[in-house]
Amino acid sequence: MQYEDLVTDLEGEVRRLLAYCDLPFEEQCLRFYETERVVQTVSSDQVRRPLYADAVDQWRNFEPWLGPLKEALGDLAGVPASGEA
After folding, report:
1. What is the chain's Cα-based Rg?
2. Distance CA 14, CA 74 (A)
3. pTM greater than the 0.85 cutoff
């Protein structure tokens, strides 16, 4: 699952994920941020708000140091490796 796809088509990506897990789609999956449950993680603030696209492409700030990782991930990185168009 790619974050960019998730923020541009939340429902479509959630439906695909649930179908893969053989689970039914529930409308509440799209409103995860409305949960009343206690969240005890560093990202607890993020859990309480809808998805946002602010982080898209922020990885590019670190691109000069990502060459070996991109090479190791290959197609999974979702970006061309060095020397590729």
Report:
1. 16
2. 25
3. no
